[in-house]
Amino acid sequence: MIKFYCNKCGIELKVENRRKVKMLISFYGEINLDFCENCFKEVIGDIEYCELIKKETEYKKRLEERKVERSKNNA
Q1: Separation between Cα atoms, residue 44 and residue 56, nearest integer Å
Q2: Could you tell me the CA-to-CA distances from 11 to 6, 7, 34, 62 in Å, in that order?
Q3: Which class for 36: exposed (0-12), middle (13-18), buried (19 or more C-beta within 10 A)?
Q4: DSSP secondary structure letter of residue 59
Q5: Would you kindly state where each structural domain of the chain is located, as residue ranges?
Q6: Would you say residue 57 has pLDDT above 80?
Q7: Which one, out of 9, 22, 50, 64, has a CA that is 20 to 30 A from the CA of 40?
Q8: How, if at all, do strands 12-13 and 4-5 pair?
Q9: Residue 45 CB-density burial (10 A; 0-12 exposed, 13-18 middle, 19+ buried)
Q10: Nearest of 23, 22, 28, 20 to residue 2 by alpha carbon
Q11: What's the predicted TM-score (pTM) here?
């Protein structure tokens, strides 16, 4: 079993509270970082965090709507 830790505060992360961040850096390639929800909010800022949560909520809502439509069409 692989364990993940927050790159900022060091706490052990679970799947549901793990935020994966990929940074592309010129000449060096890419760096993969893992953050807990609190540190992720600090790193990207409050405004961007709120926008991200809003987009995630809308995406999940559309997914549920599609599931309902598919179940109606299959029935």
Answers
A1: 15
A2: 5, 8, 10, 33
A3: buried
A4: H
A5: 1-44, 45-75
A6: yes
A7: 64
A8: antiparallel
A9: exposed
A10: 20
A11: 0.67
